[in-house]
Fold each of these.
Amino acid sequence: MLLLAGAASRACAQQAGTIATVDSRIFATEILEYKQQIDQLNREFEAQTREVQKLAFDLRTFEIDLTTNRLNYTEAVRRERTEQLERLRRQYQRKSEDLEAAVKKGLS
């Protein structure tokens, strides 16, 4: 058992005339259960998470390429690359939202 410690806590406890105790033995059990739940969620959504991370990487790489080489592209190529970038952004946004919704559903 753990007694409430600290000068401020002791002063408050003495003023109120009570002493609080916390059974710290249950922390380890609850922390282990929590860690197991987190690990299960990570395993469950691992593939989706990797897909979203890959899309984020691809999106960033595409943005850098378009920005860096913008002047090297013809107007038609620039327009096509910009459209591709927008499609990639929408796909990333959709997949991110789907993953977020799935995780929230898994938590409830």
Note: Residues 47 and 90 are 19 Å apart (CA to CA).
Amino acid sequence: MPINTKLALYNPFSVKREYEECLPKKLEAGKFYKFKEEGIKIYPLGKKIPLVQIIDSEYGKCLKPLAEISIVEETHYLLAGLTHTKGEYIVHKLYIK
């Protein structure tokens, strides 16, 4: 299974998504945030990767990186017969203001 080289989350004002599937409304360096995605996703724990916003989920298009993060926790689980990944990341550096 391939290792993901970025964490892609939805717009924080997306009405069809759960809170943890979206970017925080305000990102701050040094803070921890939770995430959740459908499917099994493998991330390099502790390695710095970009955090990006999904702009077209049908085609997997993303915006430029918003921040440099590292995944500190990753868990896979079943919910209603579907696999999901959840975890926590820390923001190291913001690329946006």
Note: DSSP finds no helices and six strands in the chain.
